[in-house]
Amino acid sequence: MELKLPPHRMQITDDLDKLLEILPSNIKQPLENHPQKNSLIEIVLDLGRKPEARFSHRTEYLSDQLITREDITHCVARVGNFSADNRAGIERTLHRISAIRNRQGDIIGLTCRIGRAVFGTILMIKELVESGQSILLLGRPGVGKTTALREIARVLADELEKRVVIIDTSNEIAGDGDVPHPAIGRARRMQVARPELQHQVMIEAVENHMPEVIIIDEIGTELEALAARTIAERGVQLVGTAHGNHLENLIKNPTLSDLIGGIQSVTLGDEEARRRGSQKTVLERKAPPTFEIAVEMWERQKWVVHEDVAQTVDYLLRGKQPIPQLRQVNDEGEVSITRDPSFSSPQQVSTNPPTLIDIPNKPTGLRAQGKMTPLPIAPHPQSIHNDFEEMLANSWYQLEKTGQKMRTPGPNGEDFPIYLYPYGIGKSHLDHVISILKLPIVLTKDLDSADAVLALRSQVKHHSKLVQLAKERQLPIKSIKSNSIPHISRALKELVSLEDGNEPESLDIRVLTRVGSDDEIEALEEARLAVEQIVIPQGQPVELLPRSAKVRKMQHELIEHYRLRSDSFGDEPNRRLRIYPA
Description:
Elements: E1 2-5, E2 11-14, H1 16-20, H2 25-32, E3 40-46, E4 52-55, E5 59-61, H3 69-76, E6 87-89, E7 96-101, E8 107-113, E9 116-119, H4 126-130, E10 135-138, H5 145-159, E11 164-168, E12 188-191, H6 198-209, E13 213-219, H7 222-233, E14 237-242, H8 247-251, E15 263-267, H9 270-276, E16 281-285, E17 293-299, E18 302-306, H10 309-317, E19 325-329, E20 335-338, H11 365-368, H12 388-396, E21 408-409, E22 415-416, E23 418-423, H13 427-437, E24 441-443, E25 452-456, H14 457-462, H15 464-472, E26 477-480, H16 485-496, H17 509-512, H18 518-538, E27 542-543, H19 549-561, E28 565-569, E29 576-580
Parallel strand pairs: 10-14, 10-17, 11-12, 11-13, 13-14, 23-24, 23-25, 25-26
Antiparallel strand pairs: 1-20, 2-9, 3-4, 3-8, 4-5, 6-7, 7-8, 15-16, 17-18, 18-19, 19-20, 21-22, 27-29, 28-29
Helix pairs in contact: 6-7, 13-16, 18-19
Organism: Cyanobacterium aponinum (strain PCC 10605)
Keywords: ATP-binding, Nucleotide-binding
Region (Disordered): 331-361
């Protein structure tokens, strides 16, 4: 599947002349008239060596004269003070000058890195930035992570009018000096006195300046990772960068693994280990990730997007191959988004990619012990057949037999059943909800004979062809946020205008569609499975996972629905339910 966005030209601004002013004349002159100076990346000055100019794809000498101490002193005198991390800058510019010192502390080498403000560089992920979710950028040095952060800060502050605070440890995002560079727009910048204090400034920014978005460059220590999690838990959107080229690098990095939820070793029961076909001791994700979205910046115009970090990490821990999005920009400024099941990152290439299986986000409790089988879970839209154009093509021409549709009047004069065309929704979920709630709905693969369309909100947003076809046939489109039973149940009930009283009272679907959070839904689902698969058929008591008082009350109500007895025992925060057989 490939989606093309409208062409958009990137605008690049720099202050290269200000950087050239600090150089000795014999180095400055060759660069002033160089035909490729717009692609210049770095100028390297090492004592006793020839000066080098590093461009995008090659390196060349600027002079046959060797660098002397006077040359280095000439440059150092014209830049700002070097901080504890041996970095300095030129005021009101984005250039960075890094020093190499000898054992006595004298500067013997300089790396002058050209800083450019590139407007339009985040077109590939603009809708993700505007979604409000936290985004983590990964990539090798020089691929453009800091440039992207700078543009993200400007878009969020100026175009979306959000309160943005940049934690600028080395003055690399907003430039040197007390006045930040105009490239960050209305975003505010907090400077960090020493790199080891970055985590303290991160917390200070949240507590003192009420930001809606925090921008962080180079999260590299455990304290900074913990500070990032604290900020995310306070409801602040995070956009940051971290060391590592790919998401797998963070899984293997014990210092930064907390950014993607943390990794823990779990011992499985015998039945669960056999069901998974794995060893009894496996690695699993410990908590929800700090960043919901991860972007691997392979090249300046070639990025890989993991839209659901939690699921991607779960796949990788199970040895499965995730299918992320590949986003690219061509020379005309057009953005293409592809998702190919055969696509994989360089660290995941194999001749026979394994078949994907769905992985629960939180494999805990009885489900993780292998004592019960969960409801059939529809495959995640990222991990199944994702060629939506082909999906539609296979459905448009599956005409139904003549006379197959039968209509009967409903209680309010409606024509039942309703013929529903599902688009990217798990059929097992739909069949389950329709069967349990006894809804007058029939699934159809013929778009021409459908009465309505049910689709994921993200697919409706990105696939205008579906919207156009529905509009031509005057079909209403009902969109849902996620491919889960509560969302599907609510949508189907709204389609047939059912009230709560019409739902069967023998199952917990009524309760599931009433609660809002995933934790509550998971707790009720755990209780239902325990009753139906262990307590009633086997006559054995079951203990559930520790839950809050509010959730335990919901579980008690559900147990009473089955006319069984349950007690709460234990001390907070480990207080939990025990369900007894009849």
